[in-house]
Specification:
The structure is a single chain. The chain is built from 14 helices and 14 strands. The chain is an alpha/beta fold. It has four domains: 108 residues, GTPase HflX, N-terminal domain (Rossmann fold, 3-Layer(aba) Sandwich); 65 residues; 168 residues, P-loop containing nucleotide triphosphate hydrolases (Rossmann fold, 3-Layer(aba) Sandwich); 53 residues, no CATH class. The strands form three sheets. It has a seven-stranded mixed beta sheet with strand order 6-7-5-8-9-11-10, sandwiched between helices. A hairpin with a 7-residue loop joins strand 10 and strand 11.
């Protein structure tokens, strides 16, 4: 699908404030999001409200103000900082006589511009089509005309029904192609596990410095820019640690507050790399005043994709912006994760991160003694595939007594997938 910003340049933004405690940070982030799409912000309107208006989201008085300012500034598009229903979007366009885009449409447009890989383009198109399909329900009233005709469409089928059918067919086709991508990724992960190559995934809020850190650790040249969603397509690189052990480092798309659910669903193929990682490097912008809120937002998405049990190392990045900050490792009982302070820009503290990764990998793998029933053959096979088996003998009931070395969370997940209780298997 084509990017909207290709022929739209002048944007009037409408910031509706339902959360006054975070208004300043959320507003500046919204402006930065619009500018990241390549649009020129020519004006802004703030609209404090207790709850959205069912028809126009902002109410008629504020809609009149938006209409007047859009006309005076010769705006090409009006962009709202919240999701709009199809009816609200249509009503606002009829009222303002200007194209209206909500926050989800804006993020989708940015993703469409940044996608480069075959997989990334498929995932963006899937998200766009899922978003569009909701707009076909009530938004396209001009397409409700009956148009029959042999060879054109089914007798009596409306244009709207045809569009729904075509969108549904395209969504099904993209899902089939993404299934192939998932299978390829799964086979690649299985091969890495057989070779005992751990996977380290960089996660974090958008523009926290993940790509710069990735380039520092790998010597790669991944695009790093001071803008939201500079990285969209996942990148994998092999890195040799100081001990000589190889790991795979992955750079992923940045997260953002209220990340659209459609995007999370559409990017499952990419986000599986996060869920299946051995360690997550959570990159945090130490320079940002809303640091803790951004940490919480990232952890929400990590939980949403089922990666909350993967061990984390928190990297507090951009210490070069503070003269009083120094590179260091912090470990405390009241910290949920190990903290490493560094600068991906200057490289200060990079050796501490390498050391922290090696320590994490060593401490996560623990010996486990298992007594598997004869029905657990599939679990046994997976343990062999992972290269985790150190000893394997038959027991008196035809099952197996095994000694394996594996991370606690991964063994627990494997047992759950096999519908087995790990506490009853350990001896």
């Amino acid at each position: 699908m084509e990017s909207k910003s290709a022929d739209i340049q002048r944007a009037l933004i409408v910031y509706v404030d339902f959360y006054k405690s975070t208004a300043d940070d959320a507003y500046s982030e919204f402006v930065q999001l619009v500018e990241s799409s390549g649009l020129d912000v020519i004006g802004s309107i703030k609209a404090p409200r207790q709850f959205p208006d069912a028809q126009l989201f902002v109410g008629k008085g504020k809609a009149d103000e938006i209409t007047l300012q859009a006309e005076q500034l010769d705006a090409d598009v009006v962009i709202f900082n919240h999701p709009l229903t199809p009816a609200q979007e249509r009503n606002l366009e009829n009222h303002t006589k200007v194209r209206v885009i909500d926050r989800i449409g804006l993020i989708l447009d940015i993703f469409a511009q940044r996608a480069r890989s075959y997989e990334g383009k498929l995932q963006v198109e899937l998200a766009q089509l899922q978003h569009l399909s909701t707009r076909l329900i009530r938004g396209w009233t001009h397409l409700e005309r009956q148009k029959g005709g042999i060879g054109l469409r089914g007798p009596g089928e409306t244009q709207l029904e045809t569009d729904r059918r075509l969108v549904g067919f395209r969504i099904k086709l993209i899902n089939q192609r993404l299934d192939k991508v998932r299978k390829q990724r799964y086979l690649s992960r299985q091969q890495r596990k057989k070779n005992d190559v751990p996977v380290i995934s960089l996660v974090g809020y958008t523009n926290a410095g993940k790509s710069t850190l990735f380039n520092r650790l790998t010597g790669a040249n991944v695009r790093a820019a001071d803008q939201l969603f500079a990285t969209l397509d996942p990148t994998l690189r092999r890195v040799e640690m100081d001990s000589g052990r190889n790991v795979i480092l992955t750079d992923t798309v940045g997260f953002i507050r209220d990340l659209p659910h459609d995007l999370v669903e559409s990017f499952q193929a990419t986000l599986e790399e996060v869920r299946e990682a051995d360690v997550l490097i959570h990159v945090i912008d130490v320079d940002h005043e809303q640091r803790q809120q951004r940490i919480d937002e990232v952890n929400k998405v990590i939980e949403l994709i089922g990666a909350e049990d993967v061990p984390q190392i928190e990297v507090y990045n951009k210490i070069d912006k503070y003269t009083e900050q120094t590179a260091r490792i912090e470990i405390a009982d009241n910290y949920p994760h190990k903290r490493i302070w560094l600068s991906s820009q200057t490289g200060e503290g990079l050796e501490l991160l390498r050391e922290g990764i090696e320590q994490q990998l060593r401490q996560d793998r623990k010996p486990h003694h298992l007594n598997l029933p004869v029905t657990a053959g599939q679990l046994r096979a997976k343990l062999f595939d992972l290269g985790a088996v150190r000893q394997d003998d038959e027991n008196e009931k035809g099952g197996w007594i095994m000694e394996v070395e594996l991370e606690e969370f991964r063994l627990t997940k494997l047992c759950e997938e096999a519908s087995l209780d790990i506490s009853q298997l350990q001896s």
